[in-house]
Amino acid sequence: MLAIARTEGFDVLTLSFRYGQRHAGEIDAAARVAVAAGVREHTVIDIDLRSFGGSALTADIAVPKGRAPATGEIPITYVPARNTIFLAYALALAEVRGAADIYLGVNAVDYSGYPDCRPEYLAAFERLARLATKAAVEGRPVRLHAPLLRLTKAQIVRRGLELGVDYGLTRSCYDPDPAGRACGRCDSCRFRLAAFAELGLSDPAPYVPLGR
């Protein structure tokens, strides 16, 4: 997503969240990606969503492994209101910095069924942003961009490679080991590995050896 925004001519500011997630290694990965892309400003916001719990990513609940895909049930890895909270912070940063565009990497094709990754959710938040900010009221509304929304994971990987993305810098696993290696069995790992396999490629990110 960052590579796409840069290709489309934007001077990008990046934003990550340390929200009490068990897979906090994604914070370091995001910083590495931002440095590699030459981002001018990378901000990390601290929010403790563990106060609410309710998710395997923020509470002492096991991360599902090897579950059947697309069962229609929203999995326990869903973090209540997470994208709404993230977008509210992004909206505030955009207004302060005078930015008119927010990019986010949600996907509604190869995904776990999270309600805040759907096109109708994004449209609704964009309408809210037009009502909720001084900038929008004065004629400078913020636009939401979700360029990965309708792509398969394989299409996303292919597009990233075309744009020179180093996927070895990135992390996706919900339940990595203490060394930061991906489990290979959670929903996020399975979608990611399937995408690389579909393209006949190996994922350069580190994984726990099979059988462990």
SSE blueprint and pairings:
Layout (H helix, E strand, L loop, with lengths): L1 H6 L5 E6 L6 H12 L4 E6 L35 H16 L3 E3 L15 H14 L1 H4 L5 E3 L7 H10 L24 H12 L14
Parallel strand pairs: 1-2, 3-4
Helix pairs in contact: 6-7
Description:
The protein is mainly α and 212 residues long. The chain has a single domain (2-152), classed as HUPs (Rossmann fold, 3-Layer(aba) Sandwich). 35% of the residues lie in helices and 8% in strands. It has helices at 2-7, 25-36, 82-97, 119-132, 134-137, 153-162, 187-198; strands spanning 13-18, 41-46, 101-103, 143-145. It has a two-stranded parallel ribbon. It has a two-stranded parallel sheet with strand order 3-4. Strand 1, helix 2 and strand 2 (41-46) form a beta-alpha-beta unit. The longest helix is centred in the middle third of the chain and has 16 residues, at 82-97. The radius of gyration is 17 Å and the shape is globular. 24% of the residues are buried.
Distance from first to last alpha carbon: 33 Å
Note the total helix count.
Answer: 7
For the residues shown, what is the average pLDDT?
92
Note the run of SSEs as H and E. HEHEHEHHEHH
Basic shape: globular
Neighbour order of strands in the largest sheet: 1-2
- Largest sheet properties: 2 strands, parallel
CATH domain class? Alpha Beta
Task: Provide a brief overview of the structure.
The chain has 212 residues and is mainly alpha-helical. Helices cover 35% and strands 8% of the residues.
